[in-house]
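Model it.
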Amino acid sequence: MYDTFKTAIATQVSALSGVSAEIVEPAVGVSNNTANGDLTLTVPRLRMKGNPAQIAKTLAEQWKADDMVTGAEAAGPYINFRINRTVLTRSVLQAVHATGSKYGWTNEGAGKRVIVEFSSPNIAKPFHAGHLRSTIIGNFIYKLHKAHGWDAISMNYLGDWGKQYGLLALGFERFGSEEELVADPIKHLFDVYVKVSAAATEEAERIKAMDAEAAAAAGPTIQDQARAYFKSMEDGDESALALWQRFRTLSIEKYKQIYARLGVHFDVYSGESQVGEGMSRAIQMLTDTGLLIEHEGAKLVDLTEHKLGKALVQKSDGTTLYLTRDIGAAIERYEKYNFDKIIYVVSSQQDHHLKQLFKTVELLGLPYADRFEHVNYGLVNGMSTRRGTVVLLEDVLHESKEKMHDVMRANEAKYRGVADPDHIADVLGMSAIVIQDMAARRIKNYTFDWGRILNFEGDTGPYLQYAHARLCSLERKAHVKVNPDADVSLLTEEVTCDIINQISLYPDILAASIKSLEPCTVVQYILKLSHSISSAWETIKVRGEADDVAEARLLMYWSARTVIGNALTLLGLEPVEAM
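Modeled.
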């Protein structure tokens, strides 16, 4: 929104100094303190000979005010400029009104395609709270690319293949319940997996205590049988594949219910099992390029000269591993989707694996090797519920909803006025979890704190939802309607100038976010905007004011509400209109 003013400043400074406007304009930024000025030129960045403070003083004295930039004042090596606030305010508020939910969007990615792979739970293991980070960060990155015009594809690459499915099948034979499987496939399969894993561990301990002859006579262990079962799956055994397919289909349906609560949609449900010829082609390509070496019947890629160790791609029994399937998947995805970029949203614990994958793809000489990106994140500590140590994501979502319900019920009068308290409690609970997760840089580990996140005050999800709902309420109760042609010259107070400045920065926030892929950039921005609105609440009123003043203020508040709502939506949250 400041571009027109920056260009005007750059043009005149260039004429006065002889420095190219292309160098001047990037040196002009929004002032940190509007009391000193609206825009600031950092003179040292002009690379002019002489004392920067003296240059700033000379340029400020030579400045000719006009309808756009009304004044200039030197402050050490800086020049602070005053702009026509009415022109800025009008252009900002009219832009928000004209574009609404797409305010700040660009066509920067037009004609380009990105695949964002995220969430990716393992079917045989719990869909636990740790998957939350990949799910919500990935969803943000997907939505952010769409906001910048990319053809974005959200992909869930399920962990749906491997020896653990042999173990799971054996476990279901022993401990499974058809009724429980249909009722809650994710939980039941996890329970079965825990039981059969415990049985396998107990058996291994028992065999360890035997002498060699007795151990040999004991026959195939549970782990041996699991390996054999998975080998039969890889060999295409119909009955083995039928049971596995049933586990997969039922689990995906349950995942979809959880994702719906989180406001997450996947364009593609893929998985390790879906990698077809790409795997054998990957092995062949590794062989042809001389990258593959054999060791005791197993096949590896030696990446030691790249400080990445040796990567196992095929076991001695012929079964494949993650890296093999990931290389095969990369080949097949490019051939199917012709992507310009593919982003893997995976925890920092997988840094080494992703580095091995990317380096192997590069060494294979694939022409799209530079299109791979890993977006990593830290761990969550202390995320537990009343139900035990293994924390299923659904349990966390349920508990956050119940805790928000308790908070809401504490104010009975307000609670009675909420149209759908159950839904609102659910949205507020998820907002609490998501905003705590995204408040800091994603690589940082953080400690989950129920007490802090559920607070309606401070920098929390409920606080942001309250700020949005309060602005919706103001609009409903106003005696005037939102008028894009309101006389915005009446918005002269310092706090209103601050709010306008914040609203004007949203397109820049989106531009910065697409470069860093950091949700915290957006979270910190809307927290700051919400604080500014809170500062104005008692003094910049709408009700009881003359119509022209009320219209100007309502347009400002409506624009702020629109931006907060847009940002919450980008973060994967449903903006609440009443609570």
